[in-house]
Each structure stands twice: as C-alpha cells, then as structure tokens.
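If your schedule permits, I should be very grateful for your opinion on a structural question. Thank you for your consideration; the sequence and its tokens are set out here:

===
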Amino acid sequence: MLTTLLLTGIIIVICVALLAIKVIVKKGGEFPNTHVSGNKALREKGISCTKTQQRQAERHKNLEERMKEAQ
C-alpha cells in the first residue's frame, strides 16, 4: 500500500513538472490563456464567453423597464 501511494505521488510530481516545463524553463514564461476572451479570432467574430453574455443580458433593459424610467 505504501509503495503504491509513493509511486502515485512520484507520477503526479513528474506530470506536474512536465506540464509546467514551459513556465519553469522559459524566462517570463506563463501558462497560455485558453479563455474565450484570449482568442483573437473569436473576439473578431464577436463571440464571447457565457459569463460575459449573461452580464450583458442582465444589463439589457426591455421596453417596459425603459418606459418606467422615462416617467
């Protein structure tokens, strides 16, 4: 049991090191931005993430709300 836990821990440490090799080795290295807002092609098409779309929808006012404000 102890050998299994030790082996698992070593494998996890190796995997994390391999995933972070670009960050560790490259000066000023950082993990890539995989968020929708970080993709130039999607921004040009006007595509945004769900959270941003939800915020925009919450700010959007319908006709009834605009008429109440005008009174």
Q: What stands out?
A: The chain has a mean pLDDT of 84.
